[in-house]
Write a structure and sequence with these properties.
This protein is an alpha+beta fold. The protein has two domains: about 70 residues, Sulfate adenylyltransferase (Roll); about 90 residues, Sulfate adenylyltransferase, CATH 3.10.400.20. It has six helices and ten strands. It has a five-stranded antiparallel beta sheet. The chain has a five-stranded mixed beta sheet with strand order 6-8-9-10-7. A hairpin with a 2-residue loop joins strand 3 and strand 4. It is globular and about 45 Å long.
Length: about 190
């Protein structure tokens, strides 16, 4: 979605009533953010809306990007927020071979997640329980981590459920919403 560099459009202040709605939607979508919500979306701070090309809305606090949304799609976290609160989102891990494709904006294919280096929820290889125990449905927003790396490299939307991925092991698994090095990552909000 953000393959090219972009320039931010108009910036406007979000009304307090709309800000409450966004806060409620964020908590509904990402219940694990509840302990951090006051740090992320403080009630007394002014949330800004930055219009981006292709009908994308970016919500920022000062010059810090927090969430973005394409029209009526799910509200998704910006990678800077994911890096600050990595345990507050559903996560999956790709193997080393898929990294270069993800960082070029390609749709993530199931073999990148089902191979020995990948991790899905309820995975026997996942000793710490980092990737959760509940299977994720198609349409879920997920954070993609890379094998051997410390921080997330992509936020996307699942095209197929994780249970189905384990069975078929092929096909399109996750659509890239925002990844390291894309136009949204390089956006200058200063």
């Amino acid at each position: 979605m953000f393959k090219k560099d972009m320039t931010p459009g108009s910036k406007s202040k979000v009304k307090s009533s709309a800000q409450r709605g966004i806060r409620a939607k964020v908590l509904e979508s990402y219940p694990l953010l509840e302990p951090y919500i006051e740090e992320i979306l403080p009630k007394k701070e002014q949330l800004d809306l930055v219009k981006l090309p292709d009908r994308v809305s970016l919500y920022t606090l000062g010059s810090t990007p927090l969430f973005f949304q394409h029209m009526d799609d799910p509200i998704m976290p910006h990678l800077t927020l994911v890096h600050k609160y990595p345990d507050a989102f559903n996560r999956l891990r790709i193997d080393r071979g898929a990294i270069r494709f993800v960082l070029s904006g390609a749709t993530l294919m199931a073999p990148g997640l089902t191979s020995p280096g990948g991790r899905l929820p309820d995975d026997d290889e996942d000793e710490e329980g980092r990737y959760g125990e509940d299977e994720l449905e198609a349409g879920s927003v997920v954070v993609i981590e890379a094998e051997g790396k410390d921080t997330a490299c992509m936020v996307g939307v699942l095209r197929m459920g994780t249970e189905e991925m384990k069975k078929v092991k092929k096909g399109q698994a996750c659509e890239a919403g925002h990844y390291l090095g894309d136009g949204l990552w390089g956006l200058n909000l200063g």
